[in-house]
Structure to design on (692 residues):
DNA sequence: AATCATATCGCACAGCCGTGCAATTGCCCG
DNA sequence: CGGGCAATTGCACGGCTGTGCGATATGATT
C-alpha cells in the first residue's frame, strides 16, 4: 500500500526473517537440530565434540536461542512487568531503575509500563502483560481496580505491590507509621508546638498513611496541628501546601512532608516567598531521601527508603511465589532510617 | 531437587499452565480452533454468530491470545529495548519514561535495560534482546562497542541512538553545537569576559560536544576561558567543577554547564561555599531544562530539550526503519529552546 | 573377541499460534 | 426447484523450540 510494486512472490512475508534458527545451525554443523537444542540446554547430554561443532557453527552464524519459542513451550516467558505512573519522578524513578537492574541480574526481562491513572489504561497494560505471558507483575504506584488483581490471580501471574496495602498480594512497604510517629515526636521533643503535615489530595496509600499517623501522634501529644495539601505529591504540591500553611497569621513551626518532592517545594516557598529561615523558624522533615535531599540547597532531614533494598525485597517475594504459588501473601516491611541534616536537628 | 517428593506423574511440569489456550476456548464455544484464531485476527473471515460465540467463551475463560506464539510465527515480537545507564537520573529518566509511553501507545512492549557501562554488561543485555527477538533497540546512553552495532545489524534489529553520533545508525540529537555557541555569545554580549565551561571527564558525546563548541566559540570571541570537570556528569560533578573553577584568585564570571545536574551542583557550591551571587557575580546557563531547573532555588537559564519530542522522533525513526530496513540512516535534529530564568538574563 | 552398560543421537511429538486451501454451507436468482 | 456464487469453516501445515524414547556407536569388562 505504500509505494512499491507487488512483492516478488518468492519471500512474501519472510522479509524480516533475519534471525538464525537452530535448523540452520544444525545444517552447518552437520548434526540434527536436537543436538543444537541440547547444546544450549544446560544439563543435556551432548558429546563434547558435537557440542564444539555446534558452538562453532552457532558462532559463525550468530545464532541465539529463540527465547520466545522456548517460552511458548515452557508456558513461561521471563518477562516481568513494572507498572508505574510517572516513573521518571522522585523515589519511583530510583525504585524502577533498581528493579530493572535486579530483574536483569536474575535473567528476567523488565518491561516498563508507564501508564496513566485511568482504569482503562491500566487494564490495557494488563492485557499486554497477559498476552505476553509475563511471569510476574510488580506495581509501584497507582490504584489498580479489583479486577486487576482478580485477572492476574486467574492467570497465575504473581503480583507484588510496593507501597500499598493490598492484602491479597505480596507486598513491600516502608514503615510509614513508625516514621511518621517519630517525626511528630522529635518535633515535639525539640519544643515545636505548632506541627503541620504537607500532603496530597490525591495521595497514594503511603502518603495517606504518613499524613494520618503524623496527625494522630501530634494531636496525641497535645500539639496544635495544621494540614496543607497540594493537588499531587510533587514539587508544585509542596508549594501549594506551603501557601496553604503559611498564609494565615498563626503559622506552623515544623512541617512534616509526606515525601521529599513536597518538602523541596515547601522549603523553597517558605524561604523565598515567606522569608522564613529553616530550621530556625520552621523545621522540616521529609520522606524518601532521594539524592536531592542531600543537595546543599536543601540539606533535608528525612527518612531514608533505600530503593535497592525495597527492589531486592520485591524481587525476592516474586521469586518465592514463583517457586510456590500457593503460599499465603508475603509482607516485607522495610524500616526507614532517620537521616539528620540541616533542615531539622533533634 | 528442592524438597518435595517426586511429582505425581500426571502433571509433570504443567504446574504453571494457568493461561488459557485457544483450543480450550474452541472447545467451550463448540467451534474449531481456527475460528478462535480468526476471531482475534483483524480482517479475517468469521461469521458474526461464530464470532459472538467465541467472544463469549473467551470472556468466560479469560482468554487472551498468546503474543509469544504469535511472535514466533511472525518472527517478530513487538518488544523494544531501551538501553540506558542510570535511567533514574535527570534528563534520561524523562526520556526513558516518554519512550515507554509512546512505545506502549503504538502497541510495543518497552523493556528497560538498566546496564552498567562495562562492555560485558552491554553485550549480555544485547544477548537478551536478541534472544527475545526484540523488534528494535533504542540506546539512550553509554558507548556500545562496535560489535554491538554489528550484531544488531546482523540480526536485522533496527538501532536508534539518542544523543550520540553513530553514523551507521538512525539517530536523534539535540543541536548541541548551536546551543553551546549561543551560550558563549550571549554571555559575551552581556559583557562577561571570563567564560567557563563545567563538564565531565567521562562525558558522553553530547557533553563533549557542548564543551568543545562553547570553548571554541568563547575563544574565538576573545574571552578568557576556563574549564572545570568532575568525574561524572551529575550533581557531585558540578560541585567538583565549581571547586576547580573557583579556587584560584581569578574567577570566571559566567559558567556554561554541560547539563542541568552539573549546574545545580555548581550553583550550590558557588552560592554556599564561595558566597557569590547568581547572576550578579556569576552567570549560569545549563542544558536540558529538567523540572528542577524551574525550582525556586535554582531558576536556571537553560536550553530545553523536550523529552517528549525526542522520544517521539526516536519512535518515528524506528517505525520508519521497520517499514523499510534498507533506508539510509536517518538523522533527526532537535533544536533546543533557550529558556531564560534568573540565573542569567541576556 | 563377545557382551554389556553407557553415553549420544535422531526421530517424532507437544506446545502455541496464523493462514492457504478445499470443502461445506447458505443464499439469491432464474 | 435447481444452479451458481460467496461466505465460512475445518484441516493441515509451518514457524521455533525442548524432550522422551528407541536406536545407534563407543568403551570397558570378562
Amino acid at each position: 500500500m505504500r509505494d512499491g510494486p507487488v512483492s516478488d512472490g518468492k519471500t512474501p512475508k519472510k522479509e524480516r526473517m533475519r534471525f538464525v534458527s537452530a535448523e540452520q545451525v544444525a545444517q552447518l554443523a552437520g548434526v540434527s537440530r536436537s543436538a543444537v537444542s541440547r547444546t544450549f540446554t544446560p544439563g543435556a547430554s551432548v558429546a563434547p565434540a558435537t557440542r564444539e561443532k555446534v558452538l562453532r557453527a552457532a558462532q559463525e552464524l550468530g545464532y541465539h536461542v529463540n527465547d520466545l519459542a522456548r517460552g511458548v513451550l515452557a508456558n513461561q516467558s521471563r518477562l516481568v512487568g513494572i507498572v508505574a505512573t510517572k516513573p521518571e519522578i522522585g523515589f519511583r524513578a530510583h525504585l524502577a531503575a533498581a528493579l530493572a537492574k535486579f530483574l536483569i541480574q536474575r535473567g528476567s526481562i523488565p518491561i516498563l509500563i508507564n501508564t496513566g491513572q485511568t482504569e482503562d489504561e491500566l487494564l490495557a497494560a494488563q492485557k499486554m502483560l497477559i498476552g505476553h505471558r509475563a511471569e510476574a507483575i510488580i506495581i509501584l504506584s497507582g490504584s489498580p481496580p479489583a479486577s486487576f488483581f482478580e485477572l492476574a490471580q486467574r492467570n497465575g501471574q504473581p503480583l507484588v505491590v510496593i507501597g500499598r496495602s493490598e492484602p491479597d498480594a505480596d507486598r513491600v512497604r516502608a514503615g510509614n507509621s513508625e516514621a511518621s510517629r517519630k517525626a511528630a515526636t522529635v518535633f515535639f521533643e525539640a519544643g515545636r508546638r505548632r506541627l503541620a503535615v504537607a500532603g496530597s489530595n490525591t495521595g497514594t496509600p503511603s502518603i495517606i498513611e504518613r499524613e494520618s499517623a503524623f496527625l494522630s501522634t501530634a494531636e496525641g501529644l497535645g500539639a496544635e496541628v495544621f494540614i496543607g495539601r497540594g493537588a499531587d505529591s510533587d514539587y508544585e504540591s509542596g508549594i501549594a501546601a506551603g501557601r496553604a500553611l503559611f498564609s494565615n497569621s498563626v503559622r506552623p513551626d515544623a512541617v512534616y512532608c509526606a515525601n521529599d518532592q513536597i518538602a523541596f517545594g515547601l522549603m523553597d516557598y517558605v524561604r523565598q516567598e515567606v522569608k522564613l529561615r529553616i530550621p530556625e523558624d520552621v523545621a522540616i522533615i521529609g520522606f524518601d531521601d532521594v539524592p536531592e535531599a542531600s543537595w546543599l540547597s536543601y540539606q533535608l532531614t528525612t527518612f531514608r527508603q533505600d530503593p535497592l533494598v525495597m527492589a531486592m525485597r520485591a524481587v525476592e517475594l516474586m521469586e518465592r511465589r514463583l517457586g510456590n504459588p500457593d503460599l499465603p501473601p508475603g509482607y516485607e516491611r522495610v524500616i526507614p532510617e532517620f537521616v539528620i541534616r540541616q533542615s531539622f536537628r533533634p
